[in-house]
Amino acid sequence: MSDDELAERVGGIGVFARVSPEHKVRVVTALQASGQIVAMTGDGVNDAAALRHADIGVAMGITGTEVTKEASDMVLADDNFATIVEAVKGGRAIYDNIIKFVRFQLSTNVSAITTILGASLLGWPVPFTPLQILWVNLIADGPPAITLGTDTPDDRVMERPPVAPGSAILTGGRILRIVFTGAVMAASLLLLFWGSLQHYDLSVGDFANEYESFSPQAKLVLTMMFMTFVFQQLFNVFNARTETESIFRRRTPNRSLGVVVGVLVVIQLCVVKVEPLREIFRTVDLSATQIGVCIGIALVIVVTEELRKAVDRSLLRRRKAVK
Predict the structure, then answer these.
(1) 8 Å CB contact between 55 and 39
(2) H-run or E-run covering 60
(3) CATH T-level assignment (fold) for domain 92-322
(4) pTM for this structure?
(5) What is the pLDDT of residues 193-246, one digit of tens each?
(6) What CATH number was assigned to the domain covering residues 3-80?
(7) Of 132, 162, 228, 312, whose Cβ has the fewest other Cβ atoms within 10 Å?
C-alpha cells in the first residue's frame, strides 16, 4: 500500500497488528498527512522512531527503555495512561493563564495610555505622576498578574475542543476586547475628572502651576483619579480570569488572588490615610464618601465587562445553532 492510499484509509482502521518499527512510523506519518495531531505511546526500542515522528511522544517511565524516554516528549513516571489526561489538563491551564496574564496587563496599559493621551488632547493636565504610574504597574498590577499566572484550572477545561495548532494568543477578537476594556476604564477616569471640575468649580488653569500651589480641591481631584485607577485594576483582574464567562459563575476560586487584592486595598488606603505616604505619592486624605465614589466608578468596568461577556455568549450560541 502506498503512502497516499494509507493516508486515505488510516482514519477508518481501528487496529494495526504485527507492525514493524517502519510500519509505526508510516502510520504516524499517514495520520499527520490527514491533518491529525498524533500522540504515540511506547516502551520499547522499536517504538522510538514513531515516538520521535509523532507530535507528542509518550514513553513509559517504569517499563520504558532509555532510548524510548530520550525519543519522547513526555514520560509517564507511573506508567498510568490516566496521567496523560491530567497532563493535558495542566497544559490547557498553563495556556489559559498566559492569556489571562496578557489580557490583564495589556488592558491596564491601554487604559493608562488612553487616559493620558485623552487628557492631553482635551487640554487637561496629566492626571497621574510618574511615581503613581510606577506604583500601578509594579504594585497594583504585578502581584495580581502573578496570581493569574498560577490560577487553578476551571473544572470544565477538558470539555472544550483543543486549540488549533499555530493559533495566536492575541487573536483579533482578544485585541478588540482588550481595547474595549482599556477604553472603558479610560473613559470612566476622564468623565470623573470632568465631573470633578464641574462639582468643585475648577478649571484647567487650577492645575497649571506646581503641585504645591494647587488648591485643596485640585489635589483632591487628582487623588480621586489615582484611587479610581488603582481600584479599576483590582476589579479588572477578576474580569481577566474569564473571556466570555461571568466572573460570578467561575466555579474554581483563586484564594491567593483574593488575598493579594485584599492586601493591596489596605495598602492603597494607607496611601491616602498615612501622612508620610501622602507626601510621597502626592495624595490627600479622602472621606469614606469620596472613597465610595472611587470604588463605584471603578466598578463600571465590572458591569460593562459582564454585559460584553453576555453579548459574546449570546453570539456564540447563535453561531452554534446555525451550524
Answers:
(1) yes
(2) strand 56-60
(3) Calcium-transporting ATPase, transmembrane domain (1.20.1110)
(4) 0.85
(5) 999 999 999 998 888 888 888 899 999 999 999 999 999 999 999 999 988 889
(6) 3.40.50.1000
(7) 162
